[in-house]
Amino acid sequence: MRTLNITVDIAVEPDAVMAYAADPRNLPYWAPGFARSIEPEGDEWIVQTEQGPVRLWFTPPNADGILDHVVRLPNGEEFMNTMRVLPHAMGSTVSFVLHQHEGMSEAQFEQDTELVRADLLNLKALLED
């Protein structure tokens, strides 16, 4: 199983990146490869994805640049997604750690890699615009 760290530099201060990316309501705008729409349900969020609805929750708001989030599939399987916003000389570096899970083919992993990369580039474009 492989792990890949996907990063993008954004010419915006980390606090502004955190404020935008940590708000789940913004997810469909910057991560349309994952979230078609999102609605709150208690302490969690219901995300409509290409594969159907999933549950999602973020780590509590923090000043450390941690945007980790858990995705729970309808079958109960959960995936922790590690995401960070780090200071960079020109603004911020956003990092997403993608794991190849058991049963995931190389082709699926490559497809997920491209989706995450596209979503991070969307985040960059939205925030730098």
Oligomeric form: single chain
Biggest sheet descriptor: 7 strands, antiparallel
CATH class: Alpha Beta
Class derived from helix and strand content: alpha+beta
Distance between the termini: 37 Å
Number of domain units: 1
Q: Shape, please?
A: globular
CATH topology: Alpha-D-Glucose-1,6-Bisphosphate, Chain A, domain 4
Name the beta content range: 35-45%
Q: In terms of per-residue confidence, which ranges show pLDDT below 50 for 5 or more consecutive residues? A: none
Q: Within the largest sheet, what's the order of strands? A: 1-7-6-5-4-3-2
Query: Could you give the order of the helices and strands?
Result: EHHEEEEEEH
Radius of gyration: 14 Å
CATH superfamily: START domain
